[in-house]
Amino acid sequence: MKKLDIVYEDKEILVINKETKVLTIATSKEKNHTLYKNASDYVKKAHPKNKVFIVNRLDRDTSGLVVFAKNEEVKKELQEKWNDITTREYIGIVEGTLKGSDTLTSYLKEDKTFRVYSTKDKKGDYAVTKYTSLASNKNYSLLKIEIKTGRKNQIRVQLSDIGHPIIGDKKYGSLKNPIFRLGLHASYLKIHWHGKELIFQARVPKTFSMFVKEIKDYEESRK
Predict the structure, then answer these.
(1) Domain-located, residue 171
(2) Which residue range(s) make up the domain with 200?
(3) CATH number for the domain including 11?
(4) pLDDT tens column, 136-188
(5) Tell me: the pLDDT tens digits for 16-75?
(6) Is residue 222, in this structure, part of any structural domain at all?
(7) Strand duo 184-193 + 63-69: pairing
(8) Which residue is catalytic, options 5, 10, 41, 59?
(9) Could you read off the pLDDT of 108-134 as tens digits, one per residue?
C-alpha cells in the first residue's frame, strides 16, 4: 500500500491529499490502484472490520482534498448537505491572460464518449463556478476557483468555454502542458458541521512553481 498523505483523521472522517494520476474509486479498467482501496487498507490496519465511505470525488488527474467517512451514517449526512455546508476552493493554472473575477454558470451534459459539455438545456446539471485571478503573465494565469456545485468536470468545462482551459487538459482544449500534469488542485475545504467549522488545506504541488509567491500568499491567507 502506498503511503497516504493524511491531512486529518478522527473517529468519523478521514481527509486525504490525493495525488494526481490516481483514481478516487475503481472503474471497470482499474480496481486496485485507487485512493479508496488505499484508504480502506489503511483503516483495516487498525481493525479488519473498519470501513471507509467516499464523501466527495476528484477527477483522476486532479490532486487535492478527498473526504472519507468511517461509517455510512456520516457519509449520508455529509453528502446530503454537502453543497450547503462546504466551501471548496481549487488552485488552477489556465492558458492565457485572465484577470479579475467572474461567476460561470451553465447546464452540463455528458456525451457517449464521456465528454462533458455545456448546454442551455435545463435538463442538464446546473453548475456554478466562481474564479478570481491571483496572477497572470502573457501565457498563463493563476486562479482561485470556488465551486458552488459539484458536477463532473465542471471547472474544466466552464473555463474551457471562456477560452481559458486548464493547462494540461487536452480533453477540453488545452494545447500547453508546461508542468506535465493537469493544472488543477483542490487546495481548501471548509465544512460547517455539528456547530463546528472544520478547515482543511492541501499544499499546492511544487509543480505549480511558476507562481511561487502568489501561491504562498494564497496559502497564508487561508490559515
Answers:
(1) yes
(2) 6-210
(3) 3.30.2350.10
(4) 999 999 999 999 999 999 999 999 999 999 999 999 999 999 999 999 999 99
(5) 999 999 999 976 666 668 999 999 999 999 999 999 999 999 999 999 999 999 999 999
(6) no
(7) parallel
(8) 59
(9) 999 999 999 999 889 999 999 999 999
- In angstroms, the first-to-last Cα distance of the chain is 31
Interatomic CA distance for residues 56 and 186, integer angstroms: 11
Evaluated on CA atoms 115, 119, 121, 127, the torsion sign reads positive
How many other C-beta atoms are found inside a 10 Å radius of the C-beta of residue 98? 20
Active site residue 169: no
- Comparing C-alpha atoms, which of 162, 159, 182, 179 is closest to residue 170? 182
Kindly report the pTM of this predicted structure. Answer: 0.94
Phi-psi region of 195 (alpha: psi -120 to 50; beta: other; left: phi over 0): left
Q: In sequence order, what are the residues at sequence separation of 6 or more whose Cβ sits closer than 8 angstroms to the Cβ of residue 205? A: 20, 63, 181, 185
> Is residue 204 situated within a structural domain?
yes
Whole-angstrom distance, CA of residue 28 vs CA of residue 175: 29
**Number of domains observed in the structure of the chain:** 1
